[in-house]
């Protein structure tokens, strides 16, 4: 999929009549792919799930997810974004929309599409046209001052995920400080502390997503 083409997409707010698109952003290595895998495991019995991975130079994440066997191979599409990973999820989302289209055509009755961004910095965020909901994942090993630094992911994401809590003692991070800082940045919005490898916290995120999906579908019927 090249950068320049005339792909037209008319934006429609999610009303339960198409797959709900879930953007997953966060710095390099914070656990985005591991989260997609863990959430898919929890949600796949009830929902039909597709995944789009944005990688900067490779299709590594697509390969990892396919090898894991968590979803059928044709449910996973890799997008290679080139040097500017944030452009592909914010300014020029055409490559991602093509992948959305491809998944929607290939899989009848698709419910959810996870869109993993290429690992980026704290300033990255999804275009609201691309993502109906926005999950942002950081990890404790990046330091407990990260929540205080702010940015759209930390402040405005629908769910902020603070991953790798198992590493906190090894990197001398105080989780209570991080919890308090997140609370200050986000007012009433959800923050979940996780170890996505062991599954800690994953159910809470899955339940939030399921509720959001059902809620919007019911709203549309009214
Ligand atoms: N200890 C620990 N390691 C984790 C956890 N979650 C992910 N990891 C590990 O962290 C590394 C990076 O995880 P990924 O899921 O690849 O992170 P990512 O955000 O997708 O990385 P990029 O796509 O390269 O930006 C992997 O080696 C994971 O196994 C966790 O909760 N605890
Ligand atoms: Mg990844």
UniProtKB/TrEMBL annotation:
<keyword id="KW-0547">Nucleotide-binding</keyword>
<protein>
    <recommendedName>
        <fullName>Urease accessory protein UreG</fullName>
    </recommendedName>
</protein>
<dbReference type="InterPro" id="IPR003495">
    <property type="entry name" value="CobW/HypB/UreG_nucleotide-bd"/>
</dbReference>
<comment type="function">
    <text>Facilitates the functional incorporation of the urease nickel metallocenter. This process requires GTP hydrolysis, probably effectuated by UreG.</text>
</comment>
<dbReference type="InterPro" id="IPR004400">
    <property type="entry name" value="UreG"/>
</dbReference>
<keyword id="KW-0996">Nickel insertion</keyword>
<feature type="binding site">
    <location>
        <begin position="26"/>
        <end position="33"/>
    </location>
    <ligand>
        <name>GTP</name>
    </ligand>
</feature>
<comment type="subunit">
    <text>Homodimer. UreD, UreF and UreG form a complex that acts as a GTP-hydrolysis-dependent molecular chaperone, activating the urease apoprotein by helping to assemble the nickel containing metallocenter of UreC. The UreE protein probably delivers the nickel.</text>
</comment>
<feature type="domain" description="CobW/HypB/UreG nucleotide-binding">
    <location>
        <begin position="22"/>
        <end position="189"/>
    </location>
</feature>
<keyword id="KW-0963">Cytoplasm</keyword>
<dbReference type="GO" id="GO:0016151">
    <property type="term" value="F:nickel cation binding"/>
</dbReference>
<dbReference type="GO" id="GO:0005525">
    <property type="term" value="F:GTP binding"/>
</dbReference>
<keyword id="KW-0143">Chaperone</keyword>
<keyword id="KW-0342">GTP-binding</keyword>
<dbReference type="GO" id="GO:0043419">
    <property type="term" value="P:urea catabolic process"/>
</dbReference>
<dbReference type="Pfam" id="PF02492">
    <property type="entry name" value="cobW"/>
</dbReference>
<comment type="similarity">
    <text>Belongs to the SIMIBI class G3E GTPase family. UreG subfamily.</text>
</comment>
<dbReference type="InterPro" id="IPR027417">
    <property type="entry name" value="P-loop_NTPase"/>
</dbReference>
<dbReference type="GO" id="GO:0005737">
    <property type="term" value="C:cytoplasm"/>
</dbReference>
<dbReference type="GO" id="GO:0003924">
    <property type="term" value="F:GTPase activity"/>
</dbReference>
